[in-house]
Amino acid sequence: MSTEHSHFSAELFDFLVELAHNNNREWFQSNKRRYEEVARQPALRFIQDVEPRLRELSPHLVADPRPVGGSLFRINRDIRFSADKSPYKTVVGMSFGHDRAAAGPAPGLYLQIGPEDTFGGGGIHMADTATLNRIRDAIVARSDAWQSIVSAPGFQPAFAPMGESLKRAPQGYDPSHRHIEDLKRKSYVWHVHFTDAEVCAAGFLDRYLAACAAANDFDRFLARALGKPW
Predict the structure, then answer these.
(1) pLDDT of residue 80
(2) pLDDT at 3 exceeding the cut of 80
(3) Residues 121, 108: contact at Cβ < 8 Å?
(4) How far does CA 1 lie from the centroid of its chain?
(5) Domains with residue ranges and CATH for the chain
(6) Which of 30, 65, 91, 199 is deepest in the core (most CB within 10 A)?
């Protein structure tokens, strides 16, 4: 089933650009109705519409359209420990996490929408050493499967350039292993970028889901490595 209508409009990007130049409570309060109409409500509709489609990829992915406490990130920034005291985010963020994430690290999906800065992604970001080593052990144990997944033409461009790496092989791993560059990664994530025009076009939800589907074997591999169902 495809979703032919558009969820977002150019007005969303206009609002976010203006917010970036007027990032203060007075301006936001006077433009709160715009935020609701062009950002918050369209994002909640997107989350509601994407939910059954994500469950086709994995029944363990959670798309929660509740206005508070769901998949949509709050527009307010946490400025308690930040030198930047701007009170509002200038992007719209959505997270589609794993339903077993409370029991330990698990791969999930993400969507960020911003002016010339929209991307979908997923995986495991900047995990602790124990989590990374479980993934590394799985890469060593299932090297052929890993090679097939990360070299797939539909996925390889989204994964190859992503994330920071160690300078040397992680302790306990063979520096000459054929996947040593992947074993040195500090994150196992993928990103696909979208243009503003793509976000506003009919079928953007389908484009996002196509990117998630291309990464599904990768996310399943990570879940299995971490003892989670997918």
Answers:
(1) 81
(2) no
(3) no
(4) 23
(5) 10-225 (3.30.930)
(6) 199
Q: How many other CB atoms are found less than 10 A from the CB of residue 140? A: 15
Lowest mean pLDDT among 39-43, 149-153, 161-165, 224-228: 161-165
CA–CA gap between residue 127 and residue 187 (Å, rounded) = 7
Instruction: Output the 3-class SS for the chain.
Output: CCCCCCCCCHHHHHHHHHHHHCCCHHHHHHCHHHHHHHHHHHHHHHHHHHHHHHHHHCCCECCCCCCCCCCECCCECCCCCCCCCCCECCCEEEEECECCHHHCCCCEEEEEECCCCEEEEEEECCCCHHHHHHHHHHHHHCHHHHHHHHCCCCCHHHHCCCCCECCCCCCCCCCCCCCHHHHCECCEEEEEEECHHHHHCCCHHHHHHHHHHHCHHHHHHHHHHCCCCC
For the full predicted model, state whether its pTM sits above 0.85.
Answer: yes
Measured in residues, the chain has a length of 230
- Burial (CB count <10 Å: 0-12, 13-18, 19+), residue 33: exposed
Kindly give, in sequence order, each residue whose CB lies less than 8 Å from that of residue 171, ignoring residues fewer than 6 positions away: none
Phi and psi angles of residue 93, each rounded to the nearest 5 degrees, phi first: -115, 140
